[in-house]
Amino acid sequence: MNRGGAGEPPGEPAPPSGILESVPDDLRRRLPDEVVDELLAGARTEEEIVGPGGLLSQLTKRLVERALEVELTDHLGYERHQEPPGGAGNQRNGSTPKTLVTEHGPVQVNTPRDREGSFEPRLVRKRQRRFEGFDEKILALYARGMSTRDIEAHLRELYGVSVGRDLISRVTDAVMDDVRAWQSRPLEDVYPVVFLDCLVLKIRDGGSVQRKACYLAMAIGLDGSREVLGLWFQDTEGAKFWMQVLNELRHRGLRDILICCVDGLSGFPEAIEAVFPATTVQTCIVHLVRTSLRYVPRRQYEQVVKDLRPIYTALDADHALAALDTFEQKWGAQLPPVVKAWRDAWEHVIPFMAFGPEVRRVVYTTNAIEALNRQLRKAVKTKGSFPSEDAARKLIYLAICNAVPQWT
Hints:
This protein is an alpha/beta fold and 408 residues long. Among the domains are: 134-173; 190-407, no CATH class. Helices cover 47% and strands 17% of the residues. It contains 18 helices and seven strands. It has helices spanning 25-30, 33-40, 46-50, 55-76, 134-143, 148-159, 165-173, 175-183, 239-251, 268-275, 285-293, 301-312, 317-331, 336-344, 346-349, 357-363, 367-380, 389-407, and strands spanning 92-102, 105-114, 190-205, 208-220, 226-234, 256-262, 280-283. The longest helix has 22 residues, at 55-76. The radius of gyration is 31 Å and the shape is elongated. The two termini are 49 Å apart. Mean pLDDT is 80; it is low at 1-20.
């Protein structure tokens, strides 16, 4: 029989076409179509189903109250409207109303009580005001760079609930325990490739805003997965502090790195080799080309880039050196700093040439970690400055968690 046809009971019209799509997939899978149809009877709009005070809000109220009743029955040891075992003992003692903030808007529930006050509900704990999953929504918005003021307005507009900025701050501050655990977690013994880079953030320190370097280490594991090993803050980027970072990674269980990819920071290779002497250090070719172009008149950019290309696309190190000699013959007299930059870095320019094309594409540049940095900059671009280092650490951590699906 077709729904809404001649066989449809009078006074119970079928839901409008497409209205079932408003019901969450989980609910539709777990309930028979007949039950869903009965629940939807009279619901004509999406707002009446998923909006504040709509069907899902009412269903949430019924389910939560029923689950709390079951919990209390289990706690007391006897069903409602029955006598306590032995005729005396703890008994039901009415209920207490409370408003839960949920993704479907505010939901008023009645929490059952017992006379002795020993009942500790697990589904909705005492003094709990936000339903499971709501904090995660706040964190997801925060991870995308929204301010507490913006989050407050967004939740009010979307869910019809008023969530104060103090509450939002407490929710996001609770992440710091996760950050500390993540920052100190044990690492694998070996990572085939590790990328080291930093980005600069504005952080308030005392009475002024300072630019601080946020150090990041990202690794490719033996299974090919990417993992951020940690983040650290320092006033400026320098090889000396990178040595402290590498020592911390060693203390967390890292024993060896096969290839470490870095930019052209002075002293960087020496700092790495001091902590991991067997590690091969690869200088980012893209950074080296950019550095070279600083000494090139703009009108000659295109030709210089074209003449540098045979060096880093050479078959092996010997052919690359021959290409560098050819470049020097053409440009050495006019652009001596460019030739000097390549020759000074040569030991750390050529390691990637020992590998096949698949590995070369991964390690010849730090683009892998810079792709992550682009995601992080999207999250922080709305921030003029951070009120503290912890505030920056919190947002960067959440942004890393949020960015993982996009750069893995």
